[in-house]
Amino acid sequence: MSPRELARLATLAENGIPLPDKHLASQGEGLIIGATGPPGAGKSSLVDALTAEVRRRGKTVAIIAVDPSSRTTGGAILGDRVRMQRHHADPGVFIRSMATRGATGGLARTSAALSQLFRAAGFDFIIVETVGVGQDEIDVAALADVTIVVLVPGMGDDIQAIKAGVMEIADIFVINKADHPGAAQVQHEIQAMLSLGHGTTIPAIFQTVATEGSGVPELVNDLETRQRKLRDPKSQTWEIDHLGIAVRSLDEALPFYANDLGLSVLSRETVEHEKVNVVMLPAGASRIELLEPLDSDSTIAKFLEKRGPGIHHIAMRVPDLNATIRRLEGAGARLLGSPRCGAGGHVYVFVHPSSAGGVLWELIQQ
Q1: CA-based nearest residue to 226, from 318, 147, 116
Q2: Cα(286)–Cα(332) distance, rounded to whole angstroms?
Q3: Are strands 310-318 and 286-293 parallel, antiparallel or unpaired?
Q4: pLDDT digits (tens, 9 = 90+) for 216-231
Q5: Which CATH superfamily is domain 3-231 in?
Q6: 3-state class of 222 per DSSP?
């Protein structure tokens, strides 16, 4: 795919226009990396240094740089990022700036769709740099295969302030500007926080000086190891991604989940081609997906009319969606359409209940 064609498709995706299935048919093996953290942590400098190191290793990179929206034009304030200008002439690097267009959570609403487009285009690494984030802006964790939280010395109480949010989504912590006083103290504070419990996997911690490239090769080594594991089906397992629950009204249903159960809202969006409004809530390693119909013609509206509110489907993450589809079709299973991009940017296909014991299964590419 030429850079011109890729740019045209990226514009369509950014404007919320569903891309033709042929442009998403290849699942790709690229690693989607989220880079987030507080303003001033040096995320752009780190992304620039990561890109340079990855290119030295002969691999390709697509960068999605999310910026605040201009109140005048609606476009991205920082444009193509001055720090990344040296990569513009490199055919192995594709940079796309996106305006948030009012979206909260550190991303634009269509960042996930662009990530899947670049993965399908064959890039080895897709780096998504968020707007400078605070405690609640953690959408990148639902998008990325690996989430990097960038911190710097001298934050002091700021680490405590954001601990309950962005600190908990990290797969990797990077202490940038590690040549400044206090880097060791930041690492100690991170380790102290992790000792209180951080799920089943302990995040890695790296110290870097992005402007000099120090520590970046070691970080890329770690990312390549994670990429190899992602590509190796034997290292992956089938896991429940979420339970889809049909509701008549999100506003009426959410108080039970948010207030009574105490679940936080991970994301809220409209999926036009499915004619639904969607809210995602965390449930341990899985999620709960609440589905509200946009109109009476939607699949969810028909489900509600026939069965009323309740569990609509179960979604399972699979290591290789295309291989799973071939195996199911060979066994005579009935699939509902071909793979397409859904809420949160994931690629999925449905298995008809008649082939799955009366349960509607959604299979999602890991």
Answers
A1: 147
A2: 29
A3: unpaired
A4: 999 999 999 888 877 7
A5: P-loop containing nucleotide triphosphate hydrolases (3.40.50.300)
A6: helix
What tokens were used for 60?
């390709």
What is the distance in angstroms between the CA of the first residue and the CA of the last residue of the chain? 24
**Distances from the Cα of 207 to the Cαs of 90, 108, 174, in angstroms?**
27, 29, 6
Query: φ, ψ for residue 346 (rounded to 5)?
Result: -75, 155
CA dihedral sign of residues 354, 357, 362, 363: negative
Is residue 43 within 8 Å of 128, Cβ to Cβ?
no
What is the SS3 assignment for 91-138? Answer: CCEEEEEEECCCCCCCCCCCHHHHHHHHHHCCCCEEEEECCCCCCCCC
* DSSP assignment letter at 257: I
Rounded to the nearest 5°, which phi and psi values hold at 272? -60, -45
pLDDT in tens, 30-89: 999 999 888 888 898 999 999 999 999 999 999 988 876 544 444 444 544 555 667 777
Cα 366 from Cα 364, distance rounded (Å): 6
- 235-365: CATH class: alpha beta
Q: Residue 5 corresponds to which tokens in the numbers above?
A: 């064609």
Pairing status of strand 361-365 against strand 347-351: antiparallel
Chain segment 162-212, per-residue pLDDT in tens: 554 566 778 899 999 999 998 988 888 887 777 665 444 678 899 999 999
Any idea what DSSP says for residue 282? E
Looking at the chain, the domain(s) classified CATH 3.40.50.300 span 3-231
The secondary element (H helix, E strand) that includes residue 323 is helix 321-330
Report the C-alpha gap between 71 and 235 in whole angstroms.
47
Q: Mutual orientation of helices 111-120 and 3-14 as an angle, nearest 10°?
A: 150
Q: What is the pLDDT of residues 271-316, one digit of tens each?
A: 888 899 999 888 877 889 999 999 999 999 999 999 999 999 999 9
Mention every residue, 6+ apart, whose C-beta is less than 8 A from residue 215: 178, 206, 207, 208, 209
